[in-house]
Amino acid sequence: MNTVRFTLNRPKALNALSSPLFRELNDALTRFEEDKGTGAIVITGSEKAFAAGADIKEMAPLTFSDAYTNNFIAPWSYLTTLRTPIIAAVSGYALGGGCELALMCDMIYCTSSATFGQPEIRLGIIPGAGGSQRLTAAVGKSKAMELILTGHNFSGKEAGDWGVAAQVFDGSHDDCLNGALETATKIAGFSRVAVTAAKEVVNKSQDLSLREGVEFERRVFHGLFGSKDQKIGMNAFAKKEKAQWTNE
Ligand code: CAA
């Protein structure tokens, strides 16, 4: 299975997330999600910016009725409905919607010097793409409240220390991107059925009680005994061979 890389590329606006950018990203994501050959996706930006937030110039003239009737920003969360694992490789600014986009991905790899934050309070608004929920789930209520109420940024190093990022790289953007691509390639090398199930059960832990989550996990675990790849994986182990996955 292939690994696909998406690079946000609006350098003049530090990859500010505009509606056209998201339409393009969502169309591309759909194409690769539907391609049975895609095993994992990496979303990245540049050395200077993963994304400096929602496009403030696009938002400035919006009225309540524009935002409400068009369900402004709702299409951003399309990414969270995909079954393919997605890694965010973050260098530079990941502010506001940029931080939220990274948090929507399945895991974050970042440089230690990356700058995360939810600065919306400074613009007279609040996070609108899930930041108040996902950041709180990642760092706990007290720290999330401090970050969102003050608009203070936090570093990539802190993101690692607080469990927001899965891996932190002291080197350059390329080191971080290569680390993310390496992990994506590893994931893409496993059975698609098992990978899809693993992503689904971990995500369910965010929505269900522990008892419901454990029961859900067990049902999905039982279901995997109906897959060809469970037999292939276990027989390969017994024969000390490398499993040749069928993704069935
Ligand atoms: N929207 C639109 N344009 C942006 C932008 C944004 N979020 N962030 C940066 N830009 C533009 C700047 O306007 C500037 O354009 P011009 O050259 O045409 O003036 C260009 O990108 C370069 O930016 P700066 O000159 O400001 O670069 P800097 O290095 O001095 O500062 C920065 C970098 C600290 C990231 C600063 O650009 C900044 O504070 N940006 C805004 C960050 C922000 O508030 N993000 C949250 C947005 S609200 C949101 O995201 C809501 C939500 O929950 C979805």
Overall description:
It is globular, with a radius of gyration of 19 Å. It has helices spanning 19-34, 56-59, 64-69, 97-104, 131-139, 141-150, 156-161, 173-188, 192-204, 210-223, 228-238; strands at residues 2-7, 38-44, 49-51, 86-90, 93-95, 107-111, 115-117, 153-155, 167-169. The longest helix has 16 residues, at 19-34. It has 2 domains: 2-188, Alpha-Beta Complex (2-enoyl-CoA Hydratase, Chain A, domain 1); 192-238, Lyase 2-enoyl-coa Hydratase, Chain  A, domain 2 (Orthogonal Bundle). Strand 1, helix 1 and strand 2 form a beta-alpha-beta unit. The chain starts with a strand and ends in a 10-residue tail after the last helix. With 248 residues, it is α/β, with parallel strands linked by helices. The site of acetoacetyl-coenzyme A has 22 residues, from helix 2, strand 5 and helix 4.
Uncertain stretches of 5 or more adjacent residues: none
Shape: globular
**Order of neighbouring strands in the sheet with most strands:** 1-2-4-6-9
Main beta sheet: 5 strands, parallel
CATH architecture of the largest domain: Alpha-Beta Complex
Oligomeric state, counting identical vs distinct chains: single chain
CATH level 4 superfamily of the largest domain:
2-enoyl-CoA Hydratase, Chain A, domain 1
The sequence of SSEs as H and E is EHEEHHEEHEEHHEHEHHHH
Topology, number of strands: 9
What percentage of amino acids are in beta strands? 15-25%
- Radius of gyration in whole Å, from Cα? 19 Å
Mean pLDDT: 97
Number of helices: 11
